[in-house]
């Protein structure tokens, strides 16, 4: 069921958007691809993993210079109320062109609600298969490998995180992402920030996978 958009394969799962068969930077569905900070168009390996190297702040998580709704976290009180990545800051659009982009939080939520998630291996790589439950599209699926993240150097193989293009509700560094875990058979949309019963989750300068 694979079709092509601007040189890259996609699957129609019967949802509001078509989903790519591979991650950005990957040539096969099970390949990890590259990890990117939110809004960055160079890999996290090239850019580094700190606020010092993040382009939309002035060296800290309280000096944001773009995508900031709260003046307390903006550089010298900066706000712009932008809540979705612009095309020029969307690595999927920049590298793949055409109609490709990073999914919004609502589009990820639709995928979770409309598909069955099954942890499995594909060509020896652990990941999650999302199989459509939509009438007429049953059996069509995409595979998302567990590529890990740069947060606390989490290795691939047991869990994966994938960016959305949507800013979170509270802080300018709590972007939405999808979290999938083989060990707990978990799959959910998370809001990325430090806090909440000692739980540590990713912030925008951490490197996550991108599935257009």
Written description of the protein model:
This protein is mainly β and 212 residues long. 9% of the residues lie in helices and 23% in strands. It has helices spanning 44-47, 91-96, 105-114; strands at 2-5, 8-11, 19-20, 115-122, 125-132, 141-145, 159-163, 176-181, 186-191. The chain has a 3-stranded antiparallel beta sheet with strand order 1-2-3, with no helix packed on it. Strands 4-5-6 form a 3-stranded antiparallel beta sheet. The protein is globular, with a radius of gyration of 17 Å. The chain starts with a strand and ends in a 21-residue tail after the last strand. Residues 191-202 have low confidence and may be disordered.
Cα gyration radius (Å): 17 Å
Strands, total number:
9
Unreliable sequence segments? 191-202
Round the mean pLDDT to the nearest integer and report it: 84
Task: Give a short account of the largest sheet.
Answer: 3 strands, antiparallel
**What is the global morphology?**
globular
Q: State the distance separating the first and last CA atoms.
A: 17 Å
Strands ordered across the widest β-sheet: 1-2-3
Q: What helical percentage do the residues reach?
A: under 10%
In DSSP terms (H or I, runs of 4 or more residues), the helix count works out at 3
How much of the sequence lies in strands comes to: 15-25%
- H/E element string? EEEHHHEEEEEE
Overall structural class, as computed from helix and strand content, comes to mainly beta
